Every structure is written in structure tokens, then in C-alpha cells.
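Severity: low
Component: inverse-folding endpoint
Summary: output formatting inconsistent between runs
Steps to reproduce: submit the following C-alpha cells with default settings.
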């Protein structure tokens, strides 16, 4: 088990077209009742949550929900900076937008871990879910993303798992070190003699 005294945080951004359910996904993660609303996010909103990994490590996720409308993209992209994980969210009707969103993230944060997230899977039949999962896996490989997951904010399908996967990137981003620095000890300096 890791020492809980040090800071372990990851910045997670949610991107995707307007109306795909990014805000509902965050709300479902916090177990808020599902509301079928069409109010768009017009400014990036943030919140944080602590996720516990299997080894007991606690990771704080700094979650940024960005606006999907084209007219807000210049503002939203400013919030991509320093992101460790990006959820590229799309529903079955907006699958063609995935490549564009992946490219936007990579332009701003080239080393960001990108997860493809199909939302609103509760609106699909079982056959449509299977086909969507297969297309998502193909997109994941083609676009070199880390994961594809079907989710539903209405039923909770895949929501907790998605954020758990994001937290697991902490171990990839912070390799274990054995060297520690003691801040209460004076630094060792080479002594130089004058003349």
C-alpha cells in the first residue's frame, strides 16, 4: 500500500459535441439523480473526487466538464492544458465527431491518455450496443486511444468503471521512486578554498 500523505491527482477533461451527455456523466458519477435535460454547458465547470485504487492508493480526480458548442471551443480548449486523461464522449448519433475531438485534444495536450466514451447506451437495443462496442473498439485502435467504454448516465452502466480507469493512469504517470528528499536538512555543498 502506498503512503497517503503525498498528493496524487490527475486532471480529467470531458470533451465532445454539445448534447452527448458529458455533464450527465459527471452527475451520474457523483450519484446524482438522472435528469433528462437539454441545457448546454456554456463554460467549463470543474469538480473533484477521490477514487481508491485496488492497492489502496487514493487518487484525486480534478474533473473538467467542457462546453461542446463550436462557438465556445476557443475558451474550452484553454482548459485542456495539463490534462492527464481525456474522455472523448459521443453518442451513437455523433460517432463521426470522435476523430475531430481526439485531434483537438492531441493538439493541446500531445501526451494525454484518451478514452473513448459512448454515452446514452440505454437508448440502444442489445444488438445496437454490440455493434457500437465493436465500432468503438475499432476507433480506439485506429486513433490509438487507451480504452473504449459504453456508458449510460440513466442506468449507471460503465460510469464508475470509467472514472476508475482514469484513476489508474496515476500509476503510469508517476513511476515509483526509492529516493526521498528531506526538506529539513541543509543541502550538502562542495567546500571550495579561497585562493
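Observed output (run 2 of 3):
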Amino acid at each position: 500500500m502506498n503512503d497517503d500523505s503525498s498528493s496524487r491527482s490527475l486532471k480529467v477533461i470531458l470533451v465532445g459535441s454539445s448534447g452527448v451527455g458529458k455533464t450527465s456523466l459527471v452527475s451520474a458519477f457523483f450519484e446524482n439523480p438522472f435528469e433528462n435535460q437539454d441545457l448546454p454547458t456554456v463554460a467549463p465547470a470543474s469538480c473533484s473526487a477521490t477514487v481508491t485504487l485496488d492497492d489502496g492508493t487514493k487518487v484525486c480526480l480534478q474533473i473538467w466538464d467542457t462546453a461542446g458548442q463550436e462557438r465556445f471551443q476557443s475558451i474550452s480548449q484553454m482548459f485542456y492544458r495539463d490534462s492527464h486523461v481525456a474522455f472523448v464522449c459521443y453518442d451513437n448519433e455523433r460517432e463521426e465527431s470522435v476523430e475531430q475531438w481526439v485531434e483537438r485534444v492531441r493538439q493541446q495536450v500531445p501526451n494525454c491518455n484518451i478514452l473513448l466514451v459512448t454515452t446514452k447506451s440505454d437508448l440502444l437495443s442489445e444488438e445496437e450496443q454490440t455493434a457500437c462496442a465493436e465500432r468503438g473498439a475499432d476507433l480506439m485502435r485506429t486513433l490509438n486511444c487507451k480504452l473504449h467504454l459504453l456508458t449510460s448516465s440513466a442506468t449507471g452502466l460503465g460510469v464508475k468503471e470509467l472514472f476508475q480507469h482514469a484513476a489508474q493512469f496515476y500509476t503510469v504517470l508517476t513511476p515509483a521512486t526509492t529516493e526521498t528528499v528531506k526538506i529539513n536538512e541543509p543541502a550538502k555543498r562542495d567546500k571550495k578554498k579561497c585562493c
